[in-house]
Amino acid sequence: EFVGSRAAEAFILSALPTPVETAQWIGFAQERLGGSVAFKELELAFSELDQHLQMRSYASGYAVSVADAALWGALRASAIFQRNLKIAGQQVLGPALTRWYAHISAQPFVERLVAAAANAQTAAKPSGAKVTTDQGSFDLGLEGVEDGKVVTRFPPEPSGYLHIGHAKAALLNEYFARSHNGKLIVRFDDTNPNKEKAEFEESITEDLRLLGIHGDVVTHTSDHFQTIYEYALKMINKGLAYADDTPHETMKEERMNGIASQRRDQSVEENLQRFELMRQGTEEGLTWCLRAKMSVDNPNKAMRDPVIFRCNLTPHHRTGTLWKIYPTYDFCCPIVDSIEGVTHALRSMEYRDRNPQYEWFFPALELRPVAIKDFSRMNFVYTLLSKRKLQWFVDSGIVGGWDDPRFPTVRGIRRRGMTIDALRQYVLMQGASQKNMLLEWDKIWALNKKIIDPVAPRHTALLKKELVPVTVVGGPDVPFTKDQPRHKKNPELGMKQTVFSSLVFVDQADAASFAHNEEVTLMDWGNAIVQDIVRTGDVVTALTVQLHLEGDVKATKKKITWLGQDPNVHPVEALLVDYDYLITKKKIEENDSIEDILTPVSEFADTAIVDANVGLLAKGAIIQLERRGYYIVDKEAAQSELGLVTLINIPDGKAASTASKHKEDPNATKIKSGKGNSWDKPSAKAKAVHPDAALSLPEPKDTCNMYESKHMYGDVAVGKPKDITSMYETHKYY
């Protein structure tokens, strides 16, 4: 009876949020829930929303509004929110937020929007086309999941640095543990004293901390050596293991052909006696190993009597010389998983053939079984993840160490400018699918750009080679400095000093493109008209321009970066470094020759002058050089023997920044695959490849032929803790 009355109108208006409230929630959706928001910030935003919606059906007011639509749209587009909603629901997101999201999703206008979007995608998709994506699912089909009782583990071997593939395994194990209010064990699988060192363990711990991964418990396989040894004795006594002294190559051939070892049917007493010789590390004991008696001819060759204990006299970095025998990963992993309380062992699909072996040990040793699931590895184009092959590059002197910006190690990509937030978000976007894919680098770098762009201060750099002086008619008689924002869209970054003078410098490439009487824009100053161009051959040696500050900056086609001159504010010299991939082939095959795939030159540098503000930046700072791209400060001027700030280019995800720079020489002689050098030893030819060959930089006498050094980042010995345990603690970069 109130329809059309003032009372009804007042009631309807009172149910809707005010324009100010609506604007606030739209801002919240854009700034707090957008795609570039860090993972931890997203979690905080979800928590705030859940708390706000505890006693509310709508974000603001008493009816659905634009505020609800904005928030719902941001959450619908958030891959992380959708993953959490599918896997954990209110356990992670909160009951109020999940209730509200379901309520808004059921609104007629939302259903219409979703249907329209689906129809648009269908219409845009060519008939019969397949949609490819590198975004996976978190659905691993885990069985026996009980909230609060899930225990996962991440077991790195302390024999090198974490790479991006390890980061995925670590993050997924942490994700599943946290999603079910469970526990994560970080366990160092230290069973090979030949390769393992305390400094690698320290570096892995540091990298995990940077990734935001904190194990509830940190353990070592070596903590359980006595227990594992006793389980080996138990297997021998049950007739499930035997000592074998078959030569390695013969054993390999017998396993491949399904032939039983001559030692397979030895008595228990003989096996115990020989295992004791192994434990003592005697000369005879060193010739034996212990094998599990699983199968001789199982179609799955991983089940053909695998070795479970070997002799090794190398002192262990934790237990010293106490042990002369060490268990293999495949033997100790199911034992330690079971006794440490692991409920779900999640590992990459490279272990899939060994899963039956893992499961065989539980009944054989009368241990509590552990559910095992695998997920696909994260493989990238032009990228090696094999520790053995990465070690080859280090040993050959082609890279300066495990933190080289061309390496896929966590430290390497961090040094290249990858943020931890981008790495976390990208890995979680991949999910835990079992579909093997060869990923491009563009998406992870594009995601990184979204994170750094809002907070990267803007600066100016000009290439020093053939730098062009410009006389500015109408410029100031006396140079002066003016404070300008470091980022026009982010005032929180503060101000920088810009020098204005009647003599400035511009890049040769810009100057060469100018025409007489052309009007150009000097960025952050105003327009100027080109009056005179002085050339020597094709090289511009001087310019004269007339300031035209009343000109329309929107009307000019060329926006030019420049640097002014002030006796009291000197520009800083810098080295701008860029990289190519280490290999020229997108996907490497096992029999590929090194010579066929090695990128001849993968490191490039240009000397430049940058605005004086850059000289104040700390190592690790990320900036944008206007019209050049994003860079990270790799070395401060005070840390450089030449007094140069070293800036490393950060790819932005665009095709030009992620494509291989190598151009194949059609006249080059190729070596047939499989005939080249082995990855197991450094190549003499590889050592001769000079990483600085393409720098084209001067060789000042007072710098001792800087560019004649063996390799760009100095002779960093991997085995020295002080050189490799911290990301930037390397010597003689240049």
Which class best fits the helix and strand makeup?
alpha/beta
End-to-end distance: 85 Å
Binned strand content: 15-25%
| Estimated radius of gyration | 31 Å
Average pLDDT, rounded to a whole number, is 83
Order the strands across the largest sheet as they lie in space.
12-25-26-27-23-24-13
Query: Helicity level, as a percent range?
Result: 25-40%
Q: Give the count of helical stretches.
A: 24
Largest sheet: 7 strands, mixed
Q: Uncertain runs with pLDDT below 50, 5 residues or more?
A: 127-133, 666-676, 684-734
How many E strands? 27
Shape: globular
What does this structure look like?
The protein is α/β, with parallel strands linked by helices and 734 residues long. Helices cover 32% and strands 18% of the residues. Helix 2 (19-32) runs parallel beside helix 4 and helix 3 (39-52) crosses helix 7 (95-105). Residues 127-133, 666-676 and 684-734 have low confidence and may be disordered.
